[in-house]
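Weekly structure sync, notes
Attendees: PL, DS, HV (note-taker this week)

Item 1: Orotidine 5'-phosphate decarboxylase
DS walked through the input record. Source organism listed as Nitrococcus mobilis Nb-231. Sequence as pasted into the shared doc:
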Amino acid sequence: MPSADRTHQCDSVEPRIVVALDFASAGRALELVDRLDPGRCRLKVGKELFVRTGPELVKRLVDRGYSVFLDLKFHDIPNTVAGACRAAADLGVWMVNVHALGGKEMLTAARRAIDSDSQRPLLIGVTLLTSHDIQSLGEIGLQGDPLTGVTRLAELAQHTGLDGVVCSAQEASGLRARFAKDFRLVVPGIRAFGARTDDQRRVVTPAAAIAAGADYLVVGRPITRAADPLWALSALEQEMRSARRRLDR
Ligand SMILES: O=C(O)c1cc(=O)[nH]c(=O)n1[C@@H]1O[C@H](COP(=O)(O)O)[C@@H](O)[C@H]1O
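Item 1 (cont.): predicted structure, written out as C-alpha cells:
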C-alpha cells in the first residue's frame, strides 16, 4: 500500500476540532483532556507544553487514543528538520508541521524522512502565521495580499509532497478551489463573531471557516480560557454543524 494511503487510516476528517493545549503544565492540560473524548476532538501539543513536559505527555495522549498534532513548526537546515520529523513520527502523532518558508529542499527532506513509516503522520506546511496582517508581513519583506504569499507556499508544499497546509480561513476558499480535496487545510485563528482576537490578526468565525472549506479548525483560548471549556466546545460544535447543514442544502 502506498504510504500516502496508510496515513488515511487515522484521518477520517471527523472530528474537525483540534484543541490547542497551550498550557504551562501537564497537570493543567490533563485536567481539560480528562473531560474530553477522542471521538469529539483532536489535540494539539505546541511549543509551550512540549518544552515543559517533553515527549512523555505526547505519548500519553496518543496512548489514550487521541489524534495528536505535534505543532513544533520545524524550520532549519534540511538534515535537522528531517531528523526532527522522524522523531515526531516515532511518537505516533497524527500530524506534524514544518514552516513552508523553509523551502523546497527542507520540505522534501522532511517528507522523505517519514515516508517509510508504516503509519506516518500527516506532514503539514505552515504558510503565513495567522498573527500576521498585511502590515506586519510588509515589515518582514513580504509585501502584498496574504493570499498571494499563502498560495505560493501552499503550491510549494504540494509539489514537495506535503499533505496540506496551515493557513487562515481568509485564504481557505482560494486554496480549496485550487487544490484537490485531500490536500488538508488546517485553520487556526478561529473566533466567534465579536469575540476578542488576542494576538490573532486574520481571524474567522467557525461557521465561515467551514464554509471556506477548512478541514480542521485549531482552537485554543476560546476553549481553554473559557469559564466553561466544555460549554465553549459544544457551542463551537453546534455552530459548525449548522454551517455544514447549510452547505449540504
Ligand atoms: O500551526 C499552528 O497551529 C498555528 C499556525 C498559525 O498560523 N497560527 C496559529 O495560531 N497556530 C496555532 O494555533 C493555536 C491558536 O490558538 P488560539 O489563538 O488560542 O485559538 C495556537 O496554538 C497557535 O500556536
